[in-house]
Amino acid sequence: MPPSSTVVDRAVGCLLGGALGDSLGSPVEFRQLPDIRAEYGEHGITEPPPQALLGDATQMSLFSGEGYLHAWTSGNNGGPWRPVESVANAYRRWLITQQEDKPQPGATGLLAETELYSNRAPGLTSLRALGEPELGSPDRPRNSSKGCGGVDRSAPIGFAPSAEMAYQLGCQCAALTHGGPGGWASAGAMALIVHLVAVQGRRLPAAVDQATGRVLRDDGETAVALAEASTLARLGASVGHVERLGQGWIGPEALAIGVYCALALPKPEQFADAVRLAANHSGHSDSTAAITGSLLGARHGTEVLPRAWLGRLELADVIERIGHDLGASCSGESFNQRRYLGLG
């Protein structure tokens, strides 16, 4: 890794990489591959639009990070350590941004960011679940959804203090809205992979293998999808392989596609090609590209991110700040904890 690739740098790379993948795939979400190629050429969409807007996956990832950091700073300053409750409250704050037009006077944290008050085709499962008085858990699900809305927001949870905690919190935070095992176990696997590569410095194939074994205890569908992604990656990069893994509407498929593209094109200089592969298919292009971007950013750090893309990314400074603070929280570096202590 380059000398600058510290845990903090990898955390920033993880969040920014995910946002870049999300912004690349968002314009072609819901589109079939022939239609994408008809509009963008035989290589499909190759870079984010001139205004690279955040999709709902990145919006909710930011609130995942803010919620986790509220719990961490509370526990670090003598208060309660309730990460799932804090993330649930953060998701309720995100819901406010989907219901109101602009920040209210005195808004703090992410609620003060005007750009977040934009509807970017959020998943109905999350909207409906967060509108209910009681949220779910793996043991007490509120629905049976295994949609990808849990896994594509789970990367920040990977910066929990330990690998098993990252997995468990990833599962629990996704189960707040997605009650099917594929909906929450895939999120736990994603958080675990991020932790292993960004915090522990593991290589991506080994991290995926470990996550496959861990998630098998909770959801065989996710474990089988990850194993197939690993097998296909050894055969090289191919749109056909992506489509063989599914379309990405459900958590196990979205995770498998994102992992496959990161494994098939793993080198630092292949970041752009990897997220392009993850975006150009008939399916949930923004979520799958976001997962790929998060994984490669977590593995290699910020040096792999295309500077031209970063220059057009919405709220890049906010994403960088949350990423920095997540990395600092689990590596013992200082950051401004006061910005999170006052959040609900």
Features:
344 residues; 58% helix; mainly alpha; single chain; ADP-ribosylglycohydrolase fold; globular
Write a brief caption for the model.
The chain has helices at 7-25, 33-40, 56-76, 83-99, 124-130, 163-175, 181-199, 204-215, 220-233, 239-244, 251-264, 271-279, 285-300, 307-310, 316-331, 338-341. It has 344 residues and is mainly alpha-helical.
Structural commentary:
By secondary structure, the protein is mainly alpha-helical. The protein has 16 helices and no strands. It has helices at 7-25, 33-40, 56-76, 83-99, 124-130, 163-175, 181-199, 204-215, 220-233, 239-244, 251-264, 271-279, 285-300, 307-310, 316-331, 338-341. The termini are far apart.
Biggest β-sheet: count, sense, barrel? none
* Secondary structure tally, helices: 16
Overall pLDDT, averaged? 96
Quantity of strands, as a count: 0
Q: Approximately what portion of the residues adopt beta-strand conformation?
A: under 5%
Compute the CA-based radius of gyration.
18 Å
- The percent of residues in helical segments reads 55-70%
Order of helices and strands: HHHHHHHHHHHHHHHH
The CATH class label is Mainly Alpha
Q: Sum up the overall morphology in one term.
A: globular
Per-chain topology:
Blueprint: H1 7-25, H2 33-40, H3 56-76, H4 83-99, H5 124-130, H6 163-175, H7 181-199, H8 204-215, H9 220-233, H10 239-244, H11 251-264, H12 271-279, H13 285-300, H14 307-310, H15 316-331, H16 338-341
Helix pairs in contact: 1-3, 1-12, 1-13, 1-15, 3-4, 3-15, 6-7, 7-8, 7-13, 8-9, 9-11, 11-12, 11-13, 12-13
